[in-house]
Amino acid sequence: MKHIIILLLTAAILTCACTSETTPSGPPPTDPNLQPAPTNPDLQPPPTDTAFCGSSTNAPCAADSDCIIGGCSGQVCQSKNEESVITTCEYRECYNAKKYNVACKCTQNKCQWTSIQAQ
What we know:
This protein is an alpha+beta fold. Helices cover 15% and strands 18% of the residues.
């Protein structure tokens, strides 16, 4: 009988200890080593007044062949000598360079979206 009482008391103590809940207060902990994604402050909107919404890095160039289209959706005009620009991968109609008659060219010695004549 003595063993049963001790067993019941032990079970009651363990049950009591296991059912107490703690809730964290405040925001979840963050990793101090986690850094925000870098942004490129040199990206500029296109030098046109159209609805095209691609970006240009304005990297130095000497000829149109120095400039390439980059970005996941082909929305960035950059130099072939630059590291690839990392962008999000969603398609927007305003990235359609052909529709808005713009091309990635070397204009004023900078890789940038430039208006072209409709063909």
